[in-house]
Design goal:
By secondary structure, this protein is α+β, with helices and mostly antiparallel strands. The protein has one domain. 41% of the residues lie in helices and 12% in strands. The protein has two helices and two strands; from the N terminus they run E-H-E-H. The radius of gyration is 11 Å and the shape is flat. The model has no long low-confidence stretch (mean pLDDT 94).
């Protein structure tokens, strides 16, 4: 993200274990926090920009 990349993280509600997504969110590395069922669509949207 610091280099200009777009970032997506998984939300706590859809995680079995929230460890890595939680840390990424806490350090500000995540631009969008989404449920697991919305991540693929977001990635596709970002690829078509």
């Amino acid at each position: 993200r610091q280099a200009g990349a777009r970032t997506v993280g998984q939300n706590e509600a859809s995680c079995v274990v929230y460890g890595m997504p939680r840390v990424a969110n806490e350090i500000g590395a995540v631009e969008d926090v989404l449920s697991i069922d919305r991540i693929a669509g977001k990635v596709l949207d970002l690829c078509s920009l």
